[in-house]
Structure to design on (152 residues):
């Protein structure tokens, strides 16, 4: 895709229909056509769009805004998989918090308050469990790397 298109909508329709979403996203991003990415993202394909934008080193603020604009229509598991492949799960923290505040049934978690000897995290959703695990491993606190006195 080397042509500079004045209107990308026909290309978007064809690529969306035939599964060339990552290629389309790369083309739109490299040609600075971000408004088309924002305006025509199919929620079902949004995880692929996010994955390609991460590969293209798009600014995180743009990606977060895109994720938040689709919100509850976005399939959580594929999005987590795309971000996990690229070690960028923290990007989803705000999105998951928004889902919880909106009362989504896709994300359920309870985090301890720090008054117990150990804080346990109960997570019903695998997507949020991965984010919590990454946070715990990335923290500098020695307590987060110990369980029952054993270093994990």
């Amino acid at each position: 895709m080397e042509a500079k298109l004045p209107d990308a909508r026909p290309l978007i329709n064809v690529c969306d229909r035939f599964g060339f979403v990552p290629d389309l996203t790369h083309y739109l991003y490299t040609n600075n056509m971000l408004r088309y990415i924002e305006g025509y993202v199919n929620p079902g394909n949004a995880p692929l769009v996010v994955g390609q934008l991460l590969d293209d080193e798009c600014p995180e603020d743009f990606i977060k805004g895109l994720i938040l604009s689709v919100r509850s229509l976005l399939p959580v598991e594929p999005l987590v998989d795309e971000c996990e492949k690229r070690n960028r799960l923290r990007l989803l923290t705000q999105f998951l918090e928004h889902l919880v505040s909106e009362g989504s049934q896709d994300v359920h978690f309870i985090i301890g308050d720090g008054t117990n000897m150990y804080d346990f995290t109960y997570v019903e959703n695998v997507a949020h469990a991965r984010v919590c695990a990454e946070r715990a491993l990335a923290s500098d606190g020695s307590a987060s790397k110990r369980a029952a006195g054993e270093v994990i």
Remarks:
- Confidence is low (pLDDT under 50) at residues 148-152.
- The radius of gyration is 18 Å.
- The chain has eight helices and four strands.
